[in-house]
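[stage:ingest] chain + small molecule (6-chloroguanine)
[stage:ingest] validated
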Amino acid sequence: MRIDVLSIFPDYFSPLELSLPGKARAKGLLDLHVHDLRQWTTDKHHTTDDTPYGGGAGMVMKPEPWGNAFDELEIDGATVIFTTPSGAPFTQEMARELATHERLVFACGRYEGIDQRVIEHAATRADVREISLGDYVLNGGEVAALAITEAVVRLIPGFMGNPESLAEESHEDGLLEYPVFTKPAAWRELEVPAVLLSGNHAAIAEWRHEQARRRTAERRPDLLHPSQAVTVGDLDALEVRAAIRGDVGEILTLQRACWMQEAQANPDIEVPALHESLDDVVGSLEAWTTHVVRHRGRLIASCRGRLEGSAWDIGRLMVAPDLQGRGLGRWLLAYVESLAPEPATSFSLFTGASSTENLRMYKKAGYRHRGAVDGVPGAVLLTKRRIF
Ligand code: 6GU
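[stage:predict] done
[stage:export] tokens:
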């Protein structure tokens, strides 16, 4: 890959002689040329800027030095990158794409920017990109060009000694990197998580993925698909409230999705949740205290309770299929228990006799088997004493 850099501060790029890009040059993978834009000025003061047409603060970079530089460097067919805070934000995906190009030319703007005709002109001769490093303002595009160069050069095929380390790092799989540890196993009373010392590679991979997901949910929720962004550990992201008429369509949709599994596991049993109509669910809001959980607007869980004698009867505990297995159902069960009115001295609910996952969860939550349910074949009753 050949890279040309155009800047009025070429000294900014001396770090490229060092470290990783230096290694790429030594290996012959990178042919790097840094140029002082002032060599293409024509006045004795080597002027590169002037006042803006239309007025306003600051100075604008003049077009002529850029045009002269483009001609002499023969940018035709290259990819020309203008670094500017008004560009598209630079990403790992862009770095991967740019690493496949034969020739990059960085045009580093200073002052308030470059005369727009420079960009228009370059676009008639080359593949032009306008790229920003992020949502903050630097004095010029040099630091951005340096950062982009470093991110791109390390992805040139043959540059990395161990290409596997590329696949594992932050952003490559859309998640932030999991925390890492090295020897010693105990340091200043802080211990390395035991799973990493276990030698169980499947358990280690699972732990790392979960850590990466949590970290991403906490620091960069924008990177996650909405279905990945919920953890019971960050419940403040969840909206939990009593159901209203406007929730009913989604409750019905969610209950059909959730009880489908149950119906498939018990093909001979009629599952009421699957046979209800919208009006049935509307009607149920009268008879039951129903609550819904929303995450960024999406209805992801629901549950209901009603007083039957001295028992708080709990029903329709549902969690969206893609969010099951992370403790949300267990949390919601405790939540709906907490809604029981004063007279309730016990909790009761029923589930499919062969719904092993549900049974395991209820058992862990303190529920005991009370046998079959009259009139509901295939169901078992579970109860628990209320502790005040
Ligand atoms: Cl590319 N240039 C300048 N001047 N400021 C920036 C930037 C670029 N990216 C973020 N801030």
